[in-house]
Amino acid sequence: MSNHHSNNGGGTVLLAFAVGALTGAAVALLFAPASGEETREYLGQKAREGKARARDAIAEADARIESAWAAGAAERAASSQARATAALERARYQLRKSNEHHAYYAAREADAFAQLALATAQSQR
Asked: Nearest 10 degrees: CA dihedral of 17, 20, 49, 64?
């Protein structure tokens, strides 16, 4: 007796369901009382409605994202400014230790965070 169990039963059922749904839709279109032209017009109208709903949903999501971004801009600017200050202190420390290589990279990091803080603050306006 084999102890091997097949795990593809769910996939087979899902595939059968999808094939059945597509077949049912095709039969419904073939036997619908509307003409081919009316059916195409109906499907076209539904596609346009779906496209319009998708555009509306995208615009709404975009507005929410923009609102959330603006609400957090002050915190992001303050965080970037603090990180720039910390990186600048690391650069000064490394320079005092005569470690120019590390000081250079810490200064570049400080500059990047300062630019980020400035850009974030300017986007608030």
From this structure: 10
With pLDDT > 90 as the criterion, what percentage of the chain qualifies?
0
Task: Report the predicted TM-score, pTM, of the whole model to 2 decimal places.
Answer: 0.41
| Structural domain contains residue 24 | no
Number of domains the chain contains: 2
Residue 103 neighbours by CB under 8 Å, 6+ apart? 91, 92, 94, 95
Residue range of the domain that includes 48: 36-71
pLDDT band, very low/low/confident/very high, at 3 (cuts 50, 70, 90): very low
Q: 66 and 80 share a domain? A: no
